DNA sequence: TTGCATTAGATGCGACTGCATGTAATGTTT
DNA sequence: AAACATTACATGCAGTCGCATCTAATGCAA
């Protein structure tokens, strides 16, 4: 593993990340009133198609537990998800998506896909 | 360009970026008192080996102009760089690295490289 | 049961970020 | 030259983040 190659890869990741995050923030925000983190959380719930523990979400979105807690709070305030206690462990919190949340996610999905498609149009084979 | 492939690439970028940024923040911060943005700015100046306009740096590090202005302010306060007016265009600001800044960068470089090497150890061919 | 360590999630706090805007220098038009 | 647009950088501000810490529930040992 050549050092210069590692550094190039890192710069590639930095560039794509910055460009994509910036575009997603703009597009999702303007068109759908969602931040990238909000979208990602909705997306994960829809993908699993069930209510999830906060901790399960933590493993999937790249946020600290505290940041995730606040994203969920914002989503709940916007009535896109709701929180419910977990009966088997009353410390836990289940997060489930509302109808409005599902609709908002569905509307935002093409926007996200379009942004990613444009930015990764030139992407070389990458996943091993 | 398959959509699922684009999404996978995006998730790969997100994961590597989060992991690397988190590790760099910890390692560079603890061992050298530098944040990732601070290191990157020092690194760019060393790489060019000359004083740079703020705007030139803007093109290379993925920060807004305002964020970069503040990074430079922090670095100047720490005496790792100094700002000087540009004679040919007195709106402009030159940023040059100090001896201390050069030393700090040199000390931090192996730390950064080690972090990246570990995180991208499994990286497949990526740059076209 | 009682006492202590652990775990889930919420929250205070300080740091960094981007956007909008401010200030000053430059360029352009008439 | 005067007036206006543009450019370079700095700064007020609000938003999000991670860390440390708090509260409450759980687990485990004596």
Automatic annotation (TrEMBL), chains A, B:
GO molecular function, one term: DNA-binding transcription factor activity
Every HTH marR-type domain range: 1-128
Keyword Cell inner membrane in annotation: no
Pfam family, one: MarR_2
Source organism per UniProt: Nonomuraea glycinis
GO biological-process terms attached to the record: response to stress
Keywords noted in UniProt: DNA-binding, Transcription, Transcription regulation
Protein name as annotated: MarR family transcriptional regulator
Keyword Magnesium: no
């Amino acid at each position: 593993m050549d050092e210069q190659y590692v550094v190039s890869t890192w710069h590639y990741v930095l560039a794509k990340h910055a460009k994509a995050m910036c575009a997603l923030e703009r597009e999702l925000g303007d068109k759908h009133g969602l931040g990238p983190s909000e979208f990602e959380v909705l997306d994960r719930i829809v993908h699993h198609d069930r209510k999830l523990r906060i901790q399960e979400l933590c493993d999937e979105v790249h946020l600290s537990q505290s940041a995730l807690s606040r994203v969920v709070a914002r989503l709940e305030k916007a009535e896109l998800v709701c929180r419910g206690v977990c009966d088997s462990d009353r410390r836990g919190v289940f997060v489930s998506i509302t109808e409005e949340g599902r609709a908002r996610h569905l509307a935002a999905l093409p926007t996200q896909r379009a942004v990613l498609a444009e930015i990764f149009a030139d992407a070389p084979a990458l996943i091993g």
